[in-house]
Amino acid sequence: MIFLWSILVLVLIVVGLALLLTVAESVLVNYGICIIDVNASEKSLEVEGGQSLLSGLVESKIFIPSACGGQGTCGFCKIEVLDGGGPILPTETPYISRAERRDGVRLACQVKIRENIKVKIPADLLNVKLFNATVKSTTPMTNNIKEIRFSLIEPSEIFSRVGQYIQIQAPSPDGPVFRAYSISSAVYETNEVELVVRLIPGGIGSTYLHNLEVGDPVEFTGPYGDFIFDEDPETELICVGGGAGMAPMKNIIKSMYKEQPDRTCWLFFGCRAKDDIFYLEMYEEMAKQHPNFHVVYGLSDPQPEDNWEGETGFIHLSLDKMIEADGTKRQAFLCGPPPMIDAVTRVLQTKGLADDEIFYDEF
Amino acid sequence: MTDVMSDVSPWAILIAAIFTSNILLTNFLGMCSFLACSRQVGTAVGLGTAVIFVMVCTTAINWCIYTYALVPQELDHLWFIIAIAVIAAFVQFVEMFVERFSPKLYHALGIFLPLITVNCAILGASLLMITRHYGFWQSMAFGLGGGLGWMLAIVLIAGLRQKMTYSDVPQPFKGVAIVMIITGIMAMIFMGFAGMVKI
What we know:
A: Ubiquitin-like (UB roll), Elongation Factor Tu (Ef-tu), domain 3, Rossmann fold, 6-stranded parallel beta sheet, 17 strands, B: mainly alpha, 9 helices
């Protein structure tokens, strides 16, 4: 009897507490409908209060970049909150610099919508859409790099700028996550998106992409990225890539030569051995059509059986040898591992490039 | 359990709970958040305040439930599990309440409140007041004193840790190790008070 009675009382108390909390929640955490005002009344969104600003915006089809799924660990979802966001939270401070703090920059995933809120979102991000696509082809390039091409279904066209990236949605044990990949197809190929992906053992995004088969459905958001391409035909373009850092180079070079066939461009690509080389034939073909296009592949660790007659050693050394500090106006785009970026940046500085003429994508 | 009430004055319990039988330094309850959130005095004060508030409220609620609901029904064996449920529910409720009505306080305490649900010092206070047969006011004094004592300990250690940033701690002792050693020394100091007030 005492057992039954114990269980009954315990259940009663626990249910009572749960009820009390549910009632309290519906009364206390009900903020009603709040209005998000985007860019001084350019857009006005009505969303359910109580959720995070990030999910409120996503609900209204504004896709802010975010790689961690709103946990406040990636620091990508920075936007300016002008009014109504409350004070900055300790969870945000590691990602927000003092200057950004003055401008009201916040992590959208940490700001809770409690009242009407005013935000400033760059026009670029308002163009970001959610794309449904299917895999058109997957082509192995080296033993761990694949070229993957998607055909867009809905929306059927993507309008990106040179050097932008997308965020692909990959399943994970903790729900879907987003991973960023540079677009490697040219900007004029508006019906398709191509990625060049290196398989990272244990990586969520790259494992997912490498296992895709032709015809599989995929979802991604984009385009993102604030690289500003210098359209001036007199400016020399220097692209330096390493390892898997090829995707943005292909995108930039292909897009540029469609519009400006005579422009001077250098492509430096560093890899270990001949097995890691890909796209070389395609670029050599392009170099025949565009006399001002110079392709330099360098091997840091050529094997005897490679019979490699091109450049050897790290790629920044080849760059140092071939580019002269003659005052030519130049813009550089680097993509590769951090040590390569550091080394190449130092070389470029000695060649007279200012910091704002060097863009890079580290991974 | 006997029904004999303790006859120590609530004032004595209050003072004792702060100094002579500090819940953290003599019972070693609430060590996890003590070690995790004691890097800066500001954080320590925030967490300490939240602990005081929750400890006072939960000892009061738990004492009432125990005395008026469980003891008359002879269900005091359910005590542990119900005390935990009440604490968890109360912390949730406080979080919602504070968030709604005092955003400022919420931003000051907000991130600490969920930590308190699993702070064993809170549960410890609720359990100890029963095993020591405290009456209502004694329990309240114990809750308040326990919270103050916990805050005192964490603020002291946070102050030491801030100072320690500039000290030359030997490599193997860096991090949590030296904090444990200091906590031990502090506990020994507080042991000097032991037995002055019996509770």
